[in-house]
Specification:
Layout: H1 8-11, E1 22-24, E2 27-29, E3 37-41, E4 44-45, H2 48-53, H3 61-77, E5 82-85, H4 95-102, E6 108-114, H5 123-127, H6 139-149, E7 159-165, H7 173-189, E8 193-196, H8 203-213, E9 221-223, H9 232-240, E10 244-247, H10 258-270, E11 277-279, E12 286-287, H11 292-298, H12 306-317, H13 322-337
Parallel strand pairs: 3-5, 4-12, 5-6, 6-7, 7-8, 8-9, 9-10, 10-11
Antiparallel strand pairs: 1-2
Helix pairs in contact: 3-4, 6-7, 7-8
Length: 359
Amino acid sequence: MTGGSSPALGAGPSRTGPGDAVPTFRGPVDPAALGPTLVHEHVFVGHPELDLNHPHPEWDPDRAIEDAVERLTRLHGLGVRTVVDLTVLGLGRDVARLAAVAERVPLHLVAATGYYTADVLPAFFGTHGPGRPVGGPDPLVEFFVRDIEEGIAGTGVRAGMLKVVTDEPGITPDVARVMSAAAEAHVRTGVTITTHSRPASRTGPAQQEFLGARGVPPERIIIGHSGDSEDLDQLRALMDAGSTIGMDRFGMEHVLPDERRVATVLALLAEGYADRMVLSHDAACFSRVTPPSWRAVHAPHWHYENLSRRVLPMLRAGGASAADLHRMLVVNPARLLAPGPARRRHAPVAGAAPTPRPS
């Protein structure tokens, strides 16, 4: 991506083999053509009701589009070829706005579906669904499957990833409902589920167990934000069970310095876990949660270019090989974004063995 041997990251195929294409904003792409991929990012994060009634002083829609085009074009110049935008319902997802960015940038953008809540859903979901006053099927399942199979909000842009959240409150009843709906959508479509986890609360193992009990194979789960942890035993256990871990918050040094994040990746690479890690930032061009003025002061390296300019050189200096980086940035994302086979709706999974790691 940048410096020294970085061009090799995008020079070769992912070698995932043939399979279904990955949906992007510009249409389907062969997984082997995705190139270096950032699997956990955002472009615009907002809050529609607040944005409508109390616009943020730093938000200008037209300027935001121009800024995103500039940032993503620069990122392509550093060798990145695909970015997964994990802005789902609950984070102000606006695929039509993002499409205006995608049509002007040279890299691939992949949309996601899911619902971002760490505790409760809006009141609508309390009245709609099986056994609820209005009744009908669970709208979450309908939303997720439609986003994947038909497209999001009439745009025709299909989601290429599912996202769920557990944080400090754990698996609350509404979080369980979201996760169950995502598991059902995975079983119907084969699309990988990625998560927001809180390693300090050990939510990753609970996510793995919950989703697995509902038919999601561990190899189709990315336990996101695992890089916030330096607990190698917890990280090994997640990977040994079959999941990929997201070392995906580089630049969030207000949570953990990048040097310590790098040290964790290097320790796991030395043990042979390159095949079970992916790298990213969880960054955004604009986020109402942590707006640009705050990030400039408190997290100045929290942006799309941090991996290319700072983190990869640190990994190389620490002994990461070109093959390690290629696997984490090209091969693993391609494998995870390539849709898996849809399974029958209630496939038994008890006792299923995880996919062994290649030696």
